[in-house]
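Researcher: Here's the sequence for the chain we discussed earlier.
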Amino acid sequence: MKTVLTERTCRALMKLQRANRRKTDWELKKLMAEGGFIISRRSISAHLRKEKVTRVKLKYKPLLTRKHMQDRLAQAKRLLHDTFENRIDVDEKYFEIESSAAVEKRRHDDAPEYTAFQSRKFIPKVMFLTAVAKPNIEHGFDGKVGIWRITEKKTAQRKSRNYERNEEYDVDVTLTGERFSKLMKEVCATAKKKMPWLEKRVVQIDGAGPHQGVYKEVVEEGKRLGAVVERQAAQMPDGNRNDLVVYPALQRQVDKLCEGERKHIDTVVKAVYHAWDNLRPETLHMACEIQRVVYASIIEHNGGNRFKVPHIGLRVEVQPYIYELNEYFDTRQEIEREEEEEDVDDSTDDDAPGQVRRVNQAELVATSWQAKEQGRKRHNGYMKGKRAKRQSSESSSDESVEEADEQFMVPTNLPRRGAPRARAIRK
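Model: Thanks. This is the structure I predict for it:
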């Protein structure tokens, strides 16, 4: 006969579970039996659920020395109250063809599918370098400075099933110091072009090995292009908005887009570019808010990293601005799409049948800037009318409330947020 879960049994079970966090419920049952407690596996599972014991994925944190903690603390104190208006975060990320931790659900009689690689240790992957900043509605900037694939141009020596002879194609390469210097020059130039209203742009990079040898060269090139290049503290990935928010968001979208597709490097590349194009300005704005919270947590833990990002209702606080941000860029995107469709229709009507007029780069840039200006003017008029409509609706609602007060008695001591709302009591 199995014993009932007494208070003594529950204390013994929880003590055993804390000492054996990776044991299954069946293994805990055997260990409890060895200690003289006869208890079923279902009772163990029910009690653990009652105590809110759940399975979690183990996470690894960078190993910190005293010097690392001091540098992290100094950067957090320096940037805690920064507005991030002129800061650009640059980082690199590998996107693998297949994750080693991928899990699928199958029936017992389903034929297994295998993905073959040359080596389990060297799964094909592609590296991208990204640069992000804070979105700005006033200047129509969505926060995405740019994304670059780490590749090298090669020429096909002979004809094959993939390329024609003398055709150029991209080959994935490692990010050396020379390649990083060229990319940083392009990043600073792109930032100057996309953020011309700033006199000073701060570009933050990490301290990876290939970056060390060309750091002075990158700093000098950044000064020439109106950018101040600085290194983030060592062992501080949570001090970069790419690692903190952008890369997890991109990885989730890439996994969804590649699901069920043929595993090939080109599929991953297309998915990464598609995920980057669909990255919303809301995500980049929230990255700045989360970064500030992380800096506060670093200061609270004296430069350490053994903490979880606290949930303090950031999205509720910035919801009005996020709504305006999404509405602005969604409206602009629709207008640009309509302008592109009109341009395509005009080009097909003017040219010969079956031919599309080619537009050079200068004309394309001028057309895009005209579309942006037109979209900004239309959106400003739209928002002005919407504000007027909102003010009129608020004034009418105030009048209706005064009329309703004559019929209903509304309690004045309303409860705080999160508590059940008080109902109006009819007289």
